[in-house]
Amino acid sequence: MFRSKSFGSVPSTLIKVSALSLLDAVAIFFAVLLAWEGSWLLVGLIAGGLFGLNILAFSRRLYPFRYLAPGLFFMILMVVLPLVYTVYISFTNYATGNILSKDQVIGLLTTRYYLPPDAPTFTFRAFGEGGTLYALYLWGPAGEYVLFPDGRLDAPSLHRLEDLDGDGRPDLVDGKPALSTPELTRFVSTLQNLAVPFGEGVLRLSTLSTFRLYAPQYRYDPATDTLVDLRTGKVYRAQGGNFVAPDGEKLDPGWVTFVGFANYLRFLRDPLYHRAFVRVFGWTVIWAILTVTLSFALGLGLAILLNDRHLRLRKFYRSLLIVPYAIPAFISILIWRGFFNVEVGLFNQVLTQYFGVRVPWLTDPFWARFACILTNVWLTYPYMMLVSLGALQSIPEEMYEAAKVDGATGWQRFSRITFPLLLISVAPLLIGSFAFTFNNFTLIWLLTRGEPVVEIGSRAGATDILLSYAYKLSFQGGRGAEYNMTAALAVVIFIIVALISGISFTRTKALEEVSRGL
Amino acid sequence: MAFRRRSPRFWLGRLVRNLLAWVAIAFALFPAAFVLGTSFDPAQNLRTARIIPAQPTTANYLYLFRERQEINFPRWLLNTVYVAGITSAFGVFLCALGAYAFSRFRFRGRRTGLLTILLVQMFPQTVGMVAIYLILQTLGRQIPWLGLNTHPGLILVYLGGAIGFNTWFMKGYFDTIPRSLEESALVDGATPFQAFWRIVLPVARPILAVVFVIQFISVYSEYLLASLILKGSDKYTLAVGLQLFIGEAYNRRWGSFAAAAVMGAAMILIIFYALQSQIISGLTGGAVKE
Hints:
The complex is a heterodimer. Chain A is built from 19 helices and 15 strands. By secondary structure, chain A is an alpha+beta fold.
């Protein structure tokens, strides 16, 4: 039904073409900038996007994709690409200490210098006037030079040197007088920053009157892919992202390289990571199952209560009962965190006053977990209640009447009719809730931050779920970022979510719709 | 209704049911009630704050609006509304475009596209946090206003996450709009885009509003990605700022925190209750419909 209309008149085509070429020009400009930096991933993305855009603009057959492209663009950039990138990182050693490329690391190490015991020394005299430093005059066994504060090193013959007192050293350089030591101290930081290339090494300030020649510490040999420490003679071999000596000593920094399944295997073999993973995984499953079950039980109970047509105020009750659902979760969670506070919290105030007990909420593993579940049940039961209410109302009245005629009791009616029917329609949502709770970072992080600590040295606390543990591995202040481990854990979560979704996917209406071609 | 004689058991049942309802309501409301009450209590320690203050004041509220560098509540609120507003507005437009194509055009790859979107959407965006962080870092080196610690960067991330589900959701609604509406326009020489813009969108206004509001609320409450991306106090959204504001300071800042919580929740509460039925059917949708 939509045919020729997608192609407009001559002027509109002209406008389209010129706008498109402008966009192309800008995008290509950015792509070149990114290529310069070596961000090939983004370059590829821009190139692909641009290519697609230009085809879209002129292809008749792809007309519908003009509507889809904008949304797809964002989805690909911020959902699909991160997914792919995460998988990629999980197979590398990308972490603090292994962020750079190998070339960058070699460049960095081969420009490290050290001071050999027999390093040549240059004595110097500084010249300048009016509070400025003009140049230094250096002399020593390795020759005489004029050094400028910007690092330029000249032969003395290029400048006008005047020796007034006849001691063999100049007293004026290009007409500038010598600076006294107190005057010179103002320029110490400038001089300290100087590293003047000289032969193989660099000249650096040593004392307030001398420079010394520092020698390069490492030499890289591309043929054998080794790095030699010129000071000790030790040979470092490129191995798994670092230069490693035969005695096992590693040089920092390292570079990014593929490590295969090493990150995954660490969760299985490295005792610290393995214990953390098992602990966290176990709690994540228990947490998700308990929360969803309890919340559903409470929600269903309230739904049955409210579904009674004789209850006059049920509309009013309903709107009050969904208050926890209407308050932004991060606010409620922070409030609950206050209630659970051991010292000043509401719960301990009441418990101490009436029962004389003080519960170590949030500091004891059991009670911290209890607090997480209680808070999340409070947050989510309204959803369960609303869903159950809807499901209850869709159960045909005749079924109950038939059951009544057959003499079924109230409990029988519930367990044989209501509950099974309800479960059929609600099951996909329960699975969805399970998946959501499984990854409910906000609740865990704002309520307990995964704490309390249960094992010294491990980042995983008693209430950490997989996602919060993954977060801690990369973004916990004060400790290095293990991006590779976070990514590996993320892939594990992806797989679990895929399994969960796979179960519910086969049951959703959406799938039926697609297969029917609606 | 005529009064009918009921057995005492019936009345006992009534009583128990109402009683149970009120117990549940007390459980539902006590945190909110406590925070609302103590927000008017000048006491800053949670231990001494009372739900019915002895000397109620609005000092806590005024405190939040004083000019400050590190604790800048009005700024956080504005940032949140800005980020959530832009994300939702753009998101609604992009999703409507996509949903229109899926609903009205028949083309190769349509089924695959619908399925793929559904599949991709099942993976929570937050799990890719490291990748998102590094992508924004790289972007920011070339385009500083789109990098880490920028609102456009955060909006970009949220937009990506908002597309899938909402496109599906809107497609379902568009399917229910009769095609005859547009067909007459097309016969009169309108382009498909004109038909979409002038006819379908206005008819679909209710669903656009629902998607906008649901999106707004979810961005408003998002914590993980915001805390990862926003590093400066002047950039924080409410979720990030409030969390850092209260920290462990329940014995020093409770009063002002309570006031901030009340104000932070008020807007969302009002929106939620004003559009209650639409939002609820949107959020719990798919379960019991049809």
